[in-house]
Amino acid sequence: MGAGQAGLALSHELVARGVDHLVLERESVAHEWRDGRWDAFTLVTPNWHCRLPGYAYDGPDPDGFMRRDEVYRWVRRYADTFDAPVAEGVAVTQLARRERGGFVVSTSAGVVTADVVVAAVGGYHRPVTPAWAGALPRRVVQVHSHRYRNADRLPPGPVLVVGTGQSGTQIAEDLLLAGREVHLAAGRAPRVARRYRGRDCMTWLAEMGVYDVPVAARGLAKRESTNHYVTGRDGGRDIDLRDFARRGMHLYGRATGVGVDASGAAAITFAPTLAADLDHADAVAESIKDDIDRHIAARGISAPVEPRYTPVWRPDGQPTSLPVDRLAAVVWSVGFRADWSWLGPLAGAVLDDEGHPRHVRGLSPEPGLAFLGLPWQHTWGSGRFLGVAQDARHLAERLVAGGWAGSADEPAVSVPAAAVGG
After folding, report:
1. Helix, strand, coil shares, percent, the chain, to 5
2. Which end is more exposed in the chain, N or C (fewer Cβ atoms within 10 Å of the end residue's Cβ)?
3. DSSP conformation class of 83
4. Does residue 333 contact residue 168 with C-beta atoms inside 8 Å?
5. What is the pTM assigned to this prediction?
6. Residue of 180, 317, 166 whose CA lies nearest to 248
7. What is the pLDDT of residues 305-345, one digit of tens each?
8. What are phi and psi of 133, to 5 degrees?
9. Distance between CA atoms of 319 and 272, rounded to whole angstroms?
10. What pairing do the DSSP bridges indicate for beta strands 336-337 and 110-114?
């Protein structure tokens, strides 16, 4: 299930092993890279991180950052390199056990039977907006970051961006560069410098093996952690909220709801957390530099020395409200919620009390059901181009060794003609 980079990586490994299989894709191959990103989107990891089984970035700018449409074309071409058996436009609606063993998979195109089912659909399925969003007047246009495309698609006037993960900070900058009045509700997200001591910080971290550290060594709570914000735009640079403020962006603490301000007017309210959250983001960025310094020293690497970051702006007080009548639009960048409803009666055996898939390196407690491409599935790199190949290879080897890749009396996957046609 899923024809993004994770599903395609596993398909490549299964093709290489001669395993009969089919990839079901609700939309089209790699569509999230094209349809789920804004126009100016770029990767935040260097292009050389883009490594799928049998397929690595070989373009002219390995230390650069591909834009949205370039990433889409790169992943789409991958499917063509090994003629991935993808049925597009087929949504899975229900999974159930088959009396003879294996699974019955109900889809929008009919019923599929399979000995093995692998959910390569990631962990971000349903865009989240807070319950109090419904209290905003209808004239204020609301859009989730997943649907944001560019500043011109929003009505004229000030925009509030809620959330400072990777998407929220980059969208806020996109709006600022377009000349919009931007209000930004910050959260607890950490940041990382784009470059330090002559190299991209993510190149240092890869060399240090940080992306290969298993989640078991960090604690399962890591699954909920927010990625560090940074950008690959215009060749890559830091994202510094303090600098945004210096350039005219209005910063606030965590958005808490709709209430009234001191004048009695309807207003979005904020917790007095801005100063602490800015300090936290800076502290994380500097701690990463500390780790890089130790790595350089321990290995005797010759690298230029550069001064550390000095805050360029500090909040003068803690703004706690923003009148609703000052806003034309709100962009929600507060994350996604997983949707495993298609697991049906198997959910109780497969999901933990918090709704996370239970698995050991992708293999669930339900024989023949596996997951791939989850955030922190095995390592920090699992949900990234840099790490998904290792997870796909491991899963393919285990599936074949476990005898779950097919049976003597029927193909591993049977599918109606409607599904084959997409």
Report:
1. 35, 20, 45
2. C
3. T
4. yes
5. 0.92
6. 180
7. 999 999 999 999 989 999 999 999 999 999 998 899 999 99
8. -60, -30
9. 7
10. unpaired
